[in-house]
């Protein structure tokens, strides 16, 4: 009997991120507390840039964006937002959306599988994803349950065969 496998990936729906960004822009343009403070959110390539004239306002812009991401089903573990920094007369926050499992996280996940998953389960790193295999489908389902508790990255489980 062949091994059963599944892949552990970390993917984000780009269209949902764009929708959340557009909704945030509309809300920031309409809200009274953002009038006259130069509040703005925009993206260029992979970076998302939030601007306002005070540190509190730029954090409020980030909060609006985070709430829109959550409403659209995107985990905040995928959002990598920096600290507010002054740039001339305005404050800025640069953020990006993380996709794929970094080598560091992949090693942590495979160590977790080696240490705590059933002994028949094997994990191998394949680029920015992990392939997990075992002869027993029940062991694989127990491994999925174990990995759902992994806090450091947003994980999805695909190609369960």
TrEMBL record:
This protein's record includes keyword Nucleotide-binding: yes
GO cellular component: cytosol
Domain of life: Bacteria
Alphabetized UniProt keyword annotations: Nucleotide-binding
GO molecular function: nucleotide binding
Coiled coil: none
Pfam family, one: YajQ
Family indicated by similarity: Belongs to the YajQ family.
HAMAP family listed in its UniProt record: UPF0234 (MF_00632)
The protein's role, per its UniProt record: Nucleotide-binding protein.
Annotated protein name in UniProt: Nucleotide-binding protein LK10_14675
């Amino acid at each position: 009997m062949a091994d059963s496998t599944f892949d552990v990936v970390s993917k984000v729906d780009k269209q949902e991120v764009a929708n959340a960004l557009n909704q945030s822009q509309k809300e920031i343009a309409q809200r009274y507390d953002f009038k006259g403070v130069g509040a703005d959110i925009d993206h260029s390539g992979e970076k998302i840039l939030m601007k306002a004239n005070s540190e509190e306002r730029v954090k409020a812009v980030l909060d609006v964006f985070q709430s829109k991401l959550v409403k659209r089903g995107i985990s905040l573990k995928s959002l990598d937002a920096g600290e507010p920094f002054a740039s001339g007369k305005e404050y800025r926050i640069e953020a990006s959306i993380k996709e794929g499992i970094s080598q560091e996280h992949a090693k942590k996940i495979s160590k977790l599988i080696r240490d705590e998953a059933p002994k028949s389960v094997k994990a191998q790193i394949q680029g920015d994803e992990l392939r997990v295999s075992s002869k027993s489908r029940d062991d694989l389902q127990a491994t999925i349950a174990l990995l759902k508790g992994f806090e450091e990255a947003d994980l999805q489980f695909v190609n369960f065969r």
